[in-house]
Amino acid sequence: MCGLILACVGSGVLSALGNVLSQALEGRRSVQASSPLGVESRDVPHHRRSVSLCITGPCSHHFYQMLEVLLPASQPHFMVKRLLLDRLLYAPLLLLLFFLVMNVLEGRRWQDFAQKVRRDYLAALTMNWKVWTPFQFVNINYVPVQFRVLFSNVVALFWYAYLASGRK
Q1: pTM for this model (two decimals)
Q2: Backbone angles phi, psi at 29, to 5 degrees
Q3: Domain range summary for the chain, segments of one domain joined by +
Q4: Per-residue pLDDT tens digits for 147-159
Q5: How many Cβ atoms are within 10 Å of 158's Cβ, its own excluded?
Q6: Membrane topology per the record (predicted)?
């Protein structure tokens, strides 16, 4: 239980730090574009933090625990199997869940979610695979299970800083 709490809190804190860092690198305090229901985009960082704290942290914690049980290090080719499970099952589902929860938190309609998925999901998933695959290989095969969520969050912090620096 302590590991789960640390995963959740760590996800929330590092998400907040990533937001502060990306805004500092962008040189702006907030964006004022509004959503269809009047939810200011400055609320999006709070929503992302909520998602990290309440969804990404716990889901990742349990997924990494499950990997240890389903694919122990004693199993042949466990490294490749873990990576394939992460990249082809977990990453697509978590990204879809992220899109759904952000849609709900922003007060958008189901049609907005469907349009967002059609418009952005494949590109986001492809970028996820390109960027995160090497880090996830190291994470799920070499980082001790109790530190995997933390490792992912630290990598995400640098990823957000990279995106904010304009080298996207």
Answers
A1: 0.72
A2: -90, -40
A3: 2-164
A4: 999 899 888 877 7
A5: 12
A6: Multi-pass membrane protein
